[in-house]
Write a structure and sequence with these properties.
mainly alpha, Glycosyltransferase, about 50% helix, binds 2-acetamido-2-deoxy-beta-D-glucopyranose, mannan endo-1,6-alpha-mannosidase activity, glycosidase, transmembrane helix, Mannan endo-1,6-alpha-mannosidase, glycoprotein
Length: about 450
């Protein structure tokens, strides 16, 4: 917790006193800064405390600020932290956390989270498992599920016919169980995680089926207008309207997840013109929308200070995934790293909060600490700082370039944890679903985009 007294002192003493705690002037400064940022981030994690639950940040609300998916996002950040800096301090806790949350079918559908389980939530854990395989993160013991197989399990679950219906001409719904609020919404992040995973599995395994799904998903997202001709990516739309009621809020994690997937498709297709163009155009749009003055800015919520806990973590994925994209699509390297460096300079400059004088806020472009704090804010700056080392480390591996993770193309299990109708819905089910629809549609435009995030 922050001490108000200290904050007041800092304010009274004038901003000249609150000089930056972090330097990114050299490789060694970057590592020193990243190490402290990682320690401050991990202070939010209590999964290993007595009575704690391994894998998750305190939550979900009302028990704490963080939804289940953000744990998955945290471990991806820590796997990159290790890969980029070589610091193994958190490897054991990361491995334990990633394995604790797999659920009984080793597919990141633990029964006690299905009541709010979205394809995006599951996707974040799946992408972190994929990252572990690509970074050659230490493999789990043989009797435990393996990183690649976990990523394939998530992919297979999301590719299964019961998650793809004809409303809106295809695509994944946001929520997985029929009874969840948001089952009637098809959104960019759910489909983006699936696209990203498909592209990366294609490159890792050379199995064309994954690439076909990635292509199909990209085509659907563009055909329905969730991504427009100028590469703006919008939040989502409702199945009752055949996805014509597009919620136009734009969030940086959508651009990041599609950009990284497009870069992998570029690489998988041996540098095809189609994917080169898409990667380059999406990068241009991403910089235009989310990096005014080359500093990361969460355009839908930052100015009005309406970003939710979920949204307060997006800048970290943006930085990390843009950086990783340069390793599989080297032609974007110069453009990306110029922007990321400027943005990271702004990020560290505002980390002057709290008793320690090094707590990070969210409003990077303001130049001063904004008084907020949380795992998201810390994770963002850690992701930005550590990603500056991207040129120093190995590119993501694949099965034929040194990858050691053992896969299972048939991983994934079945629907046992999910309350899908096994027979045509009964009248009672229909009534329940339509009441939900009315409730959701009732508050749809404007606010629904917020609900579509994580949760
Ligand atoms: C990680 O766990 C292994 C095996 O339990 C142990 O040998 C090692 O010392 C641990 N490493 C750290 C950094 O805690
Ligand atoms: C979810 O289930 C796991 C495994 O049974 C348990 O350890 C954990 O405490 C549960 N989490 C919550 C939030 O109840
Ligand atoms: C629903 O949307 C899909 C995708 O945009 C389109 O192909 C289909 O024709 C639409 N259906 C109706 C009934 O409008
Ligand atoms: C390729 O992936 C598909 C989809 O998961 C799977 O059904 C198939 O068995 C895989 N092929 C090989 C050769 O592994
Ligand atoms: C990429 O090139 C390799 C080597 O020439 C080839 O085996 C592979 O099929 C190509 N991949 C695609 C998707 O065209
Ligand atoms: C694909 O990625 C590798 C790094 O793994 C890189 O060396 C190669 O140049 C990339 N291919 C293209 C076409 O850029
Ligand atoms: C980048 O985006 C801007 C704004 O949409 C557009 O005017 C410009 O032509 C784009 N540049 C490239 C190289 O695509
Ligand atoms: C991955 O590579 C190993 C050898 O390193 C090979 O035995 C295995 O068949 C490969 N797996 C796939 C899916 O190609």
């Amino acid at each position: 917790m922050l001490s108000t007294t200290h904050l007041l002192t800092a304010v009274l003493a004038g901003s000249s006193v609150a000089h930056a705690a972090y330097s990114i002037a050299s490789e060694s400064d970057i590592k020193t800064s990243a190490k402290q940022l990682a320690a401050d981030l991990m202070a939010y994690y209590h999964g290993d405390d007595y009575g704690g639950i391994p894998g998750i940040l305190p939550g979900p609300p009302p028990n704490g600020d963080y939804y289940w998916w953000e744990g998955g996002a945290l471990w991806g950040t820590m796997i990159d932290y290790w890969h980029l800096t070589g610091d193994t301090t958190y490897n054991n806790v990361t491995k334990e956390a990633m394995l604790f949350q797999v659920g009984p079918q080793d597919n990141y559908e633990p029964p006690n989270v299905t009541a709010s389980l979205g394809n995006d939530d599951q996707g974040f854990w799946g992408m972190s498992a994929m990252l572990a395989a690509e970074n050659n993160f230490e493999n789990p013991p043989d009797d435990q599920p393996q990183w690649l197989a976990l990523a394939q399990a998530v992919f297979n679950r999301q590719a299964s016919p019961d998650r793809h219906d004809d409303t809106c001409g295809g695509g994944l719904r946001w929520q997985i169980p029929l009874s969840n609020n948001g089952y009637n919404y098809k959104n960019s992040i759910a489909n983006g995680c699936f696209f990203n995973l498909g592209a990366r599995l294609a490159r890792y395994t050379k199995n064309e089926t994954y690439a076909m799904w990635a292509e199909k998903t990209w085509n659907w997202v563009t055909s329905v207008g969730l991504m427009d001709a100028d590469y703006n990516i919008y939040d989502g739309a409702h199945v009752e309207k055949n996805c014509t009621d597009i919620n136009k809020a734009q969030f940086s994690y959508n651009n990041a997840v599609y950009l990284l997937g497009a870069a992998y498709m570029y690489n998988y297709t041996n540098g095809s013109d189609v994917w080169k163009q898409r990667t380059s155009d999406l990068l241009n749009a991403t910089i235009n929308v989310f990096f005014p003055n080359h500093i990361a800015y969460e355009v839908a919520c930052e100015q009005g200070k309406t970003c939710t806990t979920d949204m307060l973590s997006f800048k970290g994925y943006l930085h990390r995934w843009m950086a990783t994209a340069t390793r599989v699509a080297p032609f974007i390297r110069g453009t990306v790293m110029d922007v990321l460096k400027t943005s990271t300079e702004a990020a560290v400059k505002q980390c002057t909060g709290g008793d320690t004088g090094r707590v990070c806020g969210f409003q990077w472009s303001s130049g001063v600490y904004d008084g907020t704090y949380g795992a998201g804010q810390q994770m963002n700056v850690l992701g930005a700082v550590s990603s500056l080392l991207i040129d120093n480390v190995a590119a993501p591996v694949s099965n034929d370039t040194g990858g050691t993770s053992v896969g299972n193309p048939n991983a994934g299990g079945n629907d046992d944890n999910i309350n899908k109708p096994t027979s045509p819905p009964t009248t009672a089910d229909k009534a329940g679903a339509s009441i939900l629809t009315i409730l959701v549609l009732g508050c749809a435009v404007g606010t629904f985009g917020w609900m579509s995030l994580g949760a």
